[in-house]
From TrEMBL:
Pfam families: PadR (PF03551). This is PadR family transcriptional regulator. Residues 10-83 form the Transcription regulator PadR N-terminal domain. InterPro entries: Metal_resp_DNA-bind_regulator (IPR052509), Tscrpt_reg_PadR_N (IPR005149), WH-like_DNA-bd_sf (IPR036388), WH_DNA-bd_sf (IPR036390). It comes from Catellatospora chokoriensis. It comes from the Bacteria.
Length: 114
């Protein structure tokens, strides 16, 4: 299963620890180098879908200033899906880099730093 970029960064943001929604938004923006700006509606729809798919779960809920803050945690299935996507991306990048090197595009390191 290919992960869309927002899903990739949502799952990646949850690899170290559970985060609440705003924390996921901030982490995804940082991890993507600022390219990904998730809006709350988009984020929470994605979090609900990913929970339905078993890739993450609600870890806990806390009341903060009278509002419920829900923390999400990556599941083992989520980590497996993310790892598979990393390997797919790595393989695709290796193929593209090899073809670009053959074309003579400068600045591409060989696989393994050679």
């Amino acid at each position: 299963m290919r992960l869309a970029e927002p899903t990739f960064f949502i799952l990646t943001s949850l690899t170290d620890q559970p985060l609440h929604g705003y924390g996921v938004m901030q982490a995804a923006r940082e991890l993507s180098g600022g390219r990904l700006q998730l809006r709350p509606g988009t984020l929470y729809a994605a979090l609900d879908r990913l929970a339905e798919d078993g890739l993450l779960v609600v870890d806990r809920e806390e009341a903060v200033d009278g509002r419920l803050r829900r923390y999400y945690r990556l599941t083992d299935d989520g980590a497996t899906a993310l790892a598979a996507e990393v390997e797919r991306m790595r393989a695709d990048a290796t193929v593209a880099a090899a073809r670009l090197r053959r074309r003579g595009v400068p600045g591409l390191a060989l696989e393994g730093g050679r």
